[in-house]
Amino acid sequence: MKIIIRDRNKIDNFMNYLDIEMVENIKFDLKTVVILGNFDGVHLGHMEIINRAIKKAKENNLKVILYTFIEYPKKKDTIITSLSEKIYILDSIKGIDYLYLDEFENVKDLDPSKFCEDILINKLNANSIFCGFNYSFGKEKKGDVDYLIENYRDKLDLNIIDPVLYDFKTETIKIVDKTNLKTYLDKGYHIISSTFIKTLIETGNMEQVNTLLGHNYTLIGKVVEGKKLARTLGFPTANICSSNRIYPIFGVYGVKVRIKGYDKEFFGVMNIGKNPTVENEGIHIETHIFDFSDFIYGNIIEVELLHNIRLERKMKDINELKEQISKDKEKWRYIINERY
């Protein structure tokens, strides 16, 4: 996958470790398949759109372009995946040839027809368009799938994907016509959407979150120096900086860890919260990696949140905190042995 982006400085510096080629512009002389969307979280609903587009491209020997934005300024505090994390997930999908990262400010005020003509047809040379049933674009979101169907059905091969639903009781995925949506919602199905997944993240139910994502919720960041308080307690941690995003409810989570430069995966426990026993300020993201003691400041780590062990609470003193951390480790090791 190649990334098309005007300003490389818009991507986090540590994205370079993925070794993805970045270019400022490409002229598409041949027709393409274009996927439209925000793709926050890159969940199962998104994957339905992406996989159908890739299948279409293979059948017609066309290149696939996924068109999205670097960020939505109004949503940056509630995103599921940072830009780097989104790129990381998309790069793992075989069949996406180009990730076109546009700047929202450059296109937000475009008339829908200008967006379609200037970007989809002239710039991307689209033959086929794939998007979700609720996709919108252009000034004041006046462009939507109905607009595309009404004005571009003769110019573009339009593929509008209906709502993708999930029933936790039967573990069933269903794609239904949006006119029948209420019937299935009444039956207990949920729309697989970034909005719904955010509500699950906020409850800390990582098993359900990971089910709807289709991959494990992952935090990626550079290990930075903390105050070394955990080390003095006998539980050294790898700390990563918090960013503008939505986080699970504060607490302790069982995690799996990958470290740049290491082939092995590790298990550990992560604390997300304010450390109320010793600090009670700011958001701290600290991971105690099991059976690991190497110096990794400056390294990139990927931390998958698998299980909520307990919610954050203030201990009466340091000794109670140490005892609780030991219990958290023991509980997670037991779950690892049972499930993993």
Write the layout of secondary structure elements.
Layout: E1 2-4, E2 22-23, E3 32-36, H1 44-60, E4 63-69, H2 83-91, E5 98-102, H3 104-107, H4 112-123, E6 126-132, E7 136-137, E8 143-144, H5 145-152, E9 157-161, E10 164-167, E11 172-175, H6 181-186, E12 190-191, H7 194-203, H8 206-213, E13 218-224, H9 229-232, E14 238-240, E15 251-259, E16 265-273, E17 284-289, E18 300-311, H10 318-339
Parallel strand pairs: 1-2, 1-5, 3-4, 3-6, 4-5, 6-9
Antiparallel strand pairs: 7-8, 10-11, 10-12, 13-14, 13-18, 14-17, 15-16, 15-18, 16-17
Helix pairs in contact: 7-8
List keywords for this structure.
340 residues, alpha/beta, 7-stranded parallel sheet, 6-stranded antiparallel barrel
Explain how this protein is built.
This protein has a seven-stranded parallel β-sheet, sandwiched between helices. Helix 7 (194-203) runs antiparallel to helix 8. Helix 2 links the parallel strand 4 (63-69) and strand 5 (98-102). The chain has ten helices and 18 strands. It has helices at residues 44-60, 83-91, 104-107, 112-123, 145-152, 181-186, 194-203, 206-213, 229-232, 318-339; strands at residues 2-4, 22-23, 32-36, 63-69, 98-102, 126-132, 136-137, 143-144, 157-161, 164-167, 172-175, 190-191, 218-224, 238-240, 251-259, 265-273, 284-289, 300-311. With 340 residues, the protein is α/β, with parallel strands linked by helices.
